[in-house]
Structures are given as structure tokens and as C-alpha cells.
Amino acid sequence: MISLILASAVPACRRTGYRILFEMAIRNTASGVVVHRRHMSNERNVVQSPFGSVNIPEKNVTEYIFEGYEKFADKPAVTCGASKRSYTYGMTYEMIKRMASGLLSQKGCAMRKNDVLGLLLPNIPEFVPALHGGLLAGLSVTFANPLYTAEEVCRQFENAGVSAIVTLPMLLPVAEMFKSKVKHYKGTICIGGKHDLDKNVYGFEQFLKENHHSELPEIDCHKTAILPYSSGTTGLPKGVELSHYNLVANLAQGSHPAISKYYQPEYIDKKETILTIPPYFHIYGLNAILHSVLKSKNHIVSIPRYVFFPIF
User: Measured between alpha carbons, how far is 99 from 130 in angstroms, rounded to an integer?
Assistant: First the structure.
């Protein structure tokens, strides 16, 4: 029946130029068969991985990355290539837990599950406890390029619904500008700064040392974990919602021994120091590099500012 319709309709369409009408007629007459054929075509084009199926655990991404960290508690995890400031896996995870408690504590930022934390940071070791402290507290986290203008940062953070910021002393004016634009701002945590409670600013080191008591929530791995923003190639930057499960799935794919040597038997107890340049506020720098290195319990060294020196 369809072949007869096609045979009779195509010449007429070519003569009259009513291609749209022809396509509508075919769609209306044979929609069931066309949909079926399209579905079958997609099935034939499924590409099977040569590595087999990937097991994706139902865990939050912080739990997944730091699983088994105790064995490497005294091994270096993150280091600043400029200042040589460094934290072991044990120190890093302790900072994460303290950060999470402080964010939720009534004496701290008094944030609530599903609030949004904004990071305005370069590639520094403290990025890890700032990010994962927020995630362990049940928050969603977004991060902006610290080289953005104040207006660009404010636009992104307003769009994401940020209610607290982690940043550096030199970027405090940007946080202050953002605070003036929102109603329910809960505080700025300043890495390298000191408490200024009149301005709702908390020094990062003192914030972690304070005895905050908070019950950490159970985390739904399908809830939004991070909100990275696109570079805005075709317009203004747009937020992308990625769940804990999304991030874990990507890391699980990269953990196959045929893809990453660090999961091969001979590398289980052999750890390396890895230098990174891509920014953590970019999803590739975050999940494909930072998180992958931490998951494999290697040592990552970051550079807070990348300066290009031409050699020719």
C-alpha cells in the first residue's frame, strides 16, 4: 500500500512542488509503519562497547570518589604547584566533613539541603573540600570562572540560585556585589581570609576549626549535584544539571582497566604525581581529571594561574 502511494505521489510532487503536502500525506497514511521502521533502524545502529557493561553504583559522587581513602590517608592527594601547599587524603576528607557541617550549622551558614553553593575559585587544593563539603551537605554546587567580570559572575549565580559563596580575598568585592542583589544570602567563605561576621564573611581555616555540629543528610544520587555553565558560544552561558549518578557513571566508564592503567593489577598500589592545567570550573578539568585522579588515589598538582609563554 505504501509503495503504491509513494509511486503515485512522488511524480505529482515533483510536478507541483508540494513536497510538504506530500510528506504530510505519507505521515498521515503510514505513520505507524514509518515510526516502526525508524525504531528498527535505531536498533540496528546501537554500538556495543568492546569492554562490556559498566556497573554504575547508586552512590553520591563524594562517597564514590573517596571510597577506601583510609588506606591512603597519609598519602598526598592535592597540592598547589605555586605555593606547595598540600593535603593528604586523610586531611582532605576531614576538611570535607568539617566543611559540610559548617555549611549546615546554625552557627555557620545555616544552609539547607538543596540550597546552591557558588564557588569562585582558581585551581587550588581547597577547591576539593569546598566542592565536596557542599555535596556532602546535600547542596547543589555551581562554579564560575574567577576571571569573569563581576556582572558575569552575578548573572550566573543569580540564575543558579546561589545563596552562599566560597572565594578568595581578592574576589570578595564580587561576592559583596552579588550579596547586594539577592534577598536570602547566607554567607561568604573566604579562603585565606578571616572572619568578618558584620559582613557575613567566614575565614575558611577558622570556619573548619570551629566545632560545628550538623547531621549530614542522606543524599539521593539522582538529585542535582553540580551546575556547570556552558561557555556561551551561541549566546549567554547556560546551566547544565548533572546528578551524582551522572558523575559517577562517567567515572565508572573511565575506571575500566583497558581504559585507565591505574586500575590494572600492577598499578593498584603504585601511585603517581599528575600535573593538571585545565580549570576545575570546567567539567573536563573537574570530572575527567580532578575526580579521576582522586578516585584512583593518585596525587594531583594544580597551577592556580596558567600563563602562556610563547617559545617561538
Answer: 7
Q: How far apart are CA 57 and CA 181, in angstroms?
A: 40
Torsion of CA 163, 167, 173, 175, to 10 degrees: -10
| CATH architecture group of domain 61-302 | 3-Layer(aba) Sandwich (3.40)
Q: How far apart are CA 187 and CA 200, in angstroms?
A: 5
User: What residue type is assigned to position 183 of the chain?
Assistant: K
Question: Does 2 score more than 60 pLDDT?
Answer: no
> How many Å apart are CA 294 and CA 205, to the nearest integer?
22
Average pLDDT (239-248) is 97
Cell numbers given for 125: 587544593
Three-class SS state of 78: strand
Place 106 in a pLDDT band, splitting at 50, 70 and 90: very high
The whole-angstrom separation of Cα 45 and Cα 88 is 46
Distance CA 134, CA 98 (A): 10
Report the length, in residues, of the chain: 312
- Beta bridge mates, 118: 142, 165
Cα–Cα distances (Å) from 307 to 10, 91, 249, 304, in that order, read: 62, 30, 33, 10
The rounded distance, in Å, linking the Cα atoms of 96 and 55 is 26
- Whether the Cβ atoms of residue 162 and residue 116 lie closer than 8 Å to each other: yes
Q: In angstroms, what is the C-alpha Rg of the chain?
A: 25
When the pLDDT of each residue in the chain is averaged and rounded to a whole number, the result is: 86
202: which DSSP letter? E
Q: How far apart are CA 50 and CA 53, in angstroms?
A: 9
Which three-class secondary structure state does DSSP give residue 45? coil
pLDDT (tens digit, 9 = 90+) per residue, 161-202?
Answer: 999 999 999 999 999 999 999 999 999 999 999 999 999 999
pLDDT tens digits, residue range 12-68? 433 344 333 334 433 444 444 444 444 444 567 788 888 888 899 999 999 999 999
Task: Give yes or no for a contact between 137 and 113, defined as CB atoms under 8 angstroms apart.
Answer: yes
